[in-house]
């Protein structure tokens, strides 16, 4: 039996164990829909796409110049070519050519039959329909071959891919206007805590605005989920139970923040025990130690800690890979690069740490990372200031200035 099946309370897991368990315990949705090409952006491709045509579909010129038939025996400097006509993109020259014939050709125009090489305009001198070329030519130069981008019949996009801007351009380039994508993952989320106020309400002593719901909104929108925001739920067992059960009914996943640690008001544990099979994990990481995971009916439940930075980090490290699996996505690992730390980083072995840092490049183009000074799990501004997480594995101790560390960029700006 796995750790996940045996333990109900406070199983201690490493980050890798937790992530692997989450990926293993969640299954991809199989239903799909046909959507117009533009709507397929950032969606997950349902099946391999086969290319119906060659791209480009005709051999064409890569430059403005003259199309000729290359001959090893021609002495360029002394040969005069005869201009036979012109070929434009979309308006080909109709006749075959060979010998000393040349056709003036524009970028993208189909190569005339018999022509295999293009000499650029700058290397040519045209006078009275006679053309002389300067310099040397290589056979086949400046020509784009039919099928050199994509060949008819080949798989050009694989199932499970998150479609990008170039992907949808590629789909258009082969003439396809509708795409089969997985249906969106449906996710409901809410915040728990008596201290939480919604925007527009005034704060009394000890109360705070609910920020996690907005952070989660952003993370889930970026992920491409179909979301249902269920607001703030008080630390009240019957209200929690009601909300959880109705959220689970219509969604693939339910995410909450707050109430999973060992505090007095953490009712969510007993409520969860009554609605589904939920495990409570103590993950050997900082920040974001407690995490609850399990099933409420068919729906996956993720109970994240309440601290705003912990919410983001546990989402990125655990929820995102699990949701990616549910979405049918095949690439699930964040990019990690090596960077030199510009400061000493205090740490003792035992827990994995994700510190916030600013990734940039030194004058030689080498990656460097500066950890931020404020690393508290409640300091959300540190996530805004940072552009990367410094991933310090459990076994590692203090990091000296100049030592290499692993870095997960989460924002592309430097
Ligand atoms: P908890 O995990 O419920 O014990 O909460 C841990 C810390 O996170 C407490 O300081 C909470 O006030 C704070 N917190 C919990 N939920 C939210 C939220 N939705 N927005 C902002 N802070 C929160
Ligand atoms: Mg709470």
Structural class per helix/strand content? alpha/beta
Number of strands: 27
Largest sheet: 7 strands, mixed
Which ions, cofactors or small ligands are bound in this entry? adenosine monophosphate, magnesium ion
How many domains, in number, for the residues? 4
Separate helix tally: 8
Q: What is the molecular shape? A: elongated
Under the CATH scheme, which architecture of the largest domain would be assigned?
3-Layer(aba) Sandwich
The fraction of residues in strands falls at 25-35%
Quick summary of this structure?
By secondary structure, the protein is an alpha/beta fold.
Describe this structure in words.
The protein is an alpha/beta fold and 414 residues long. The protein folds into 4 domains: 11-31 and 184-327, Molybdenum Cofactor Biosythetic Enzyme, Chain A (3-Layer(aba) Sandwich), CATH 3.40.980; 37-54 and 148-182, Molybdopterin biosynthesis moea protein, domain 2; 60-144, Beta Complex (Molybdopterin biosynthesis moeA protein, domain 3); 337-409, MoeA, C-terminal, domain IV (Beta-clip). Helix content is 20%, strand content 31%. The protein has 8 helices and 27 strands. It has helices at 3-6, 15-25, 165-173, 212-223, 237-250, 268-275, 308-327, 381-385, and strands at residues 11-13, 32-36, 49-50, 60-61, 65-68, 81-87, 101-105, 117-120, 124-127, 130-133, 143-144, 155-157, 178-182, 186-192, 196-197, 208-209, 226-233, 253-257, 277-283, 285-286, 290-296, 299-304, 337-341, 352-361, 367-371, 388-392, 404-409. The strands form 7 sheets. The protein has a 7-stranded mixed sheet, with helices on both faces. Strands 8-5-7-6-10-9 form a 6-stranded mixed sheet, with no helix packed on it. The chain is elongated. Residues 1-8 have low confidence and may be disordered. The protein binds adenosine monophosphate and magnesium ion.
């Amino acid at each position: 039996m796995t750790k996940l099946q045996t333990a109900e309370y406070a199983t201690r897991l490493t980050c890798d164990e937790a992530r692997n368990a989450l990926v293993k315990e969640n299954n991809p949705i199989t239903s799909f829909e046909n959507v117009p090409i533009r709507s397929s952006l950032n969606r997950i491709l349902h099946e391999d796409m086969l290319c119906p045509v060659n791209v480009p579909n005709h051999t064409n010129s890569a430059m403005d110049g003259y199309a000729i038939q290359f001959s090893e025996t021609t002495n360029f400097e002394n040969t005069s070519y005869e201009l036979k006509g012109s070929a434009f993109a979309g308006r080909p020259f109709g006749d075959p050519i060979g010998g000393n014939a040349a056709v003036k050709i524009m970028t993208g125009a189909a190569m005339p039959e018999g022509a295999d090489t293009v000499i650029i305009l700058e290397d040519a001198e045209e006078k009275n329909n006679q053309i002389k070329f300067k310099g040397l030519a290589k056979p086949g130069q400046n020509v784009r071959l039919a099928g050199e981008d994509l060949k008819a019949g080949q798989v050009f996009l694989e199932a499970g891919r998150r479609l990008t801007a170039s992907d949808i351009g590629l789909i258009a380039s082969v003439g396809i206007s509708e795409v089969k994508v997985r249906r969106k993952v449906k996710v409901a989320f809410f915040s728990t805590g008596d201290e939480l106020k919604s925007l527009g309400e005034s704060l009394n002593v000890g109360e705070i605005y609910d920020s996690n719901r907005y952070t989660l909104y952003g993370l889930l929108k970026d992920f491409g989920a179909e979301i249902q925001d269920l607001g703030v739920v008080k630390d009240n067992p019957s209200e929690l139970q009601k909300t959880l059960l109705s959220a689970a009914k219509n969604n693939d996943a339910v995410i909450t923040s707050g109430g999973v640690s060992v505090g007095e008001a953490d009712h969510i544990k007993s409520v969860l025990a009554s609605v589904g099979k939920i495990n409570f994990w103590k993950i050997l990481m900082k920040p974001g130690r407690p995490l609850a995971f399990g099933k409420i009916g068919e729906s996956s439940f993720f109970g994240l800690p309440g601290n705003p930075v912990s919410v983001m980090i546990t989402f990125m490290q655990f929820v995102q890979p699990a949701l990616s699996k549910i979405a049918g996505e095949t690439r699930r690992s964040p990019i990690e690069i090596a960077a030199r730390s510009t400061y000493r980083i205090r740490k003792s072995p035992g827990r994995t740490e994700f510190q916030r840092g600013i990734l940039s490049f030194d004058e030689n183009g080498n990656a460097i990372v500066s950890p931020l000074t404020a690393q508290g799990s409640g300091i959300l501004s540190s996530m805004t200031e940072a552009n990367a997480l410094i991933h310090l594995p459990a076994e590692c101790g203090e990091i000296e200035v100049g030592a290499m560390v692993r870095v997960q960029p989460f924002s592309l700006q430097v």
